[in-house]
Design brief:
With 238 residues, the chain is of the alpha/beta class. The chain is 49% helix and 15% strand. The strands form four sheets. Strands 6-5-3-8 form a four-stranded mixed beta sheet. The radius of gyration is 35 Å and the shape is rod-shaped.
Length: 238
């Protein structure tokens, strides 16, 4: 036998084996044809093993949309913004000659507002009242209702409304100082995109691809029975 024949003959045997494997009927291949709304044309079909029922693409799509629509966005507090703004206020107030007592009252008011958190107006308007927001502090996240934080506009409104508790003399001091007190309020709650996307991605990955289980011996469909959407879903899961 030549060297060439030694190579060709094993190749031919290998090719023949591959053809035989391909031509053999595949075990477990579903052999029934069916259509939703049409009668089941075969004998009664019972489950011969336990198997999960797969969700449809539409069900999965709706679940993903629901998570995206009702997802809680994450924000983080930037304390240096408050520090810079209040330091600037103190410098301007001292230069304008505001009394120390009035400066103390205004500083307390500013700190109260910053403590709750101030958000950019546009970002605040995007918040879903049903989901609110989560504020990241270190490795923890504190969930808040959207009404528990300020937009820049509502922060200014809150500031102005609290000035009504000041005395006439203090109000006069503020007016004559020439200071625009609203400039010391700035957003210190910033959108945390990386955390938001990471948590959202994790939630989407946690969606189960199945719903329920069909047990061994359970009747799937009877002969002549109309194939419903539920039955079709079970058959598609086989």
């Amino acid at each position: 036998m030549t060297k060439k024949e030694n190579i060709i003959i094993p190749l031919l045997f290998g090719l023949a084996a591959i053809i035989m494997v391909i031509s053999l009927p595949r075990e477990g291949q579903f052999k029934y044809q069916y259509q939703k709304g049409s009668p089941w044309m075969y004998e009664n079909l019972d489950a011969t093993f336990d198997f999960p029922v797969l969700k449809t693409e539409e069900e999965l799509r709706l679940e993903r949309e629901k998570i995206s629509r009702h997802f809680t966005p994450y924000f983080f507090l930037k304390p240096d913004i408050e520090a810079v703004q209040l330091r600037t206020f103190s410098e301007d107030a001292a230069q304008a000659g505001l009394s120390e007592e009035l400066q103390g009252k205004l500083l307390t008011l500013y700190k109260t507002i910053y403590g709750r958190g101030i958000m950019d107006n546009a970002r605040y308007d995007e918040l879903n009242p049903e989901t609110g927001l989560a504020i990241v502090q270190g490795k923890m996240a504190d969930k808040k209702a959207h009404t528990e934080v300020f937009s820049l506009t509502s922060a200014n409104d809150f500031f102005l409304s609290n000035l009504e508790t000041l005395s006439r003399q203090e109000t006069s001091e503020m007016r004559s100082s020439g200071i625009d007190f609203s400039v010391f309020l700035a957003p210190n709650l910033l959108y945390d995109e990386s955390t938001t996307l990471a948590v959202q991605s994790s939630s989407l990955q946690d969606i189960s691809l199945t719903k329920g289980i069909v047990h061994t011996g359970q009747r799937i469909v009877s002969k002549g029975e109309v194939v419903t959407g539920t039955t079709e879903q079970i058959l598609n899961s086989l």
